[in-house]
Amino acid sequence: MAQFYKTVMRALIVDDSKTVRMVLAKSLRESGFEVLEAEDGQVAIDRLYQGEPVDLMLVDWNMPVMNGYELVCAVRANVLLSHIRIMMVTTETSMTQVEKALAAGANEYLMKPFTKEQLLEKLTILGLI
Questions:
Q1: Looking at residue 92, what is its pLDDT?
Q2: Most buried of the four, 17, 29, 54, 68, by CB within 10 Å?
């Protein structure tokens, strides 16, 4: 008889706010995700280039060193990372910014402040829960 194993989804939270990372991590862990964190886009891209397997990235826009938009562009420019779903989680609320992020390759956009229910709704839309 074949055995089936549920693979754990891995999420990388990229935000310069430790508090935001903690809030997101708690909700994701409660939804069954394994959670990794990075404080800016450069740390995140370094982890990805070192072969860290990730299924989902939750990315803030405004960060030092490498911002979220630059990170989305870098991830989408690498065919080996094309499977990663990217959700922008940011205070940038103008439609211009939303359109720019989606055009760069973000799959979803969640505006801060957000509720756990809103986060779960976006994860459902992405087919992750």
A1: 86
A2: 68
- Alpha carbon 124 to chain centroid, angstroms: 14
Amino acid at 28: L
Report domain extents, the chain: 10-125
Over the range 92-118, which residues count as b (16 or more CB within 10 Å of their CB) and which as e? beeeebbebbeebbbbbbbeeebeeee
pTM assigned to the model: 0.93
Band of pLDDT at residue 129, cut at 50, 70 and 90:
confident
d(CA 83, CA 54): 9
- CATH number corresponding to 10-125: 3.40.50.2300
Q: Which residue has the higher pLDDT, 127 or 2?
A: 127
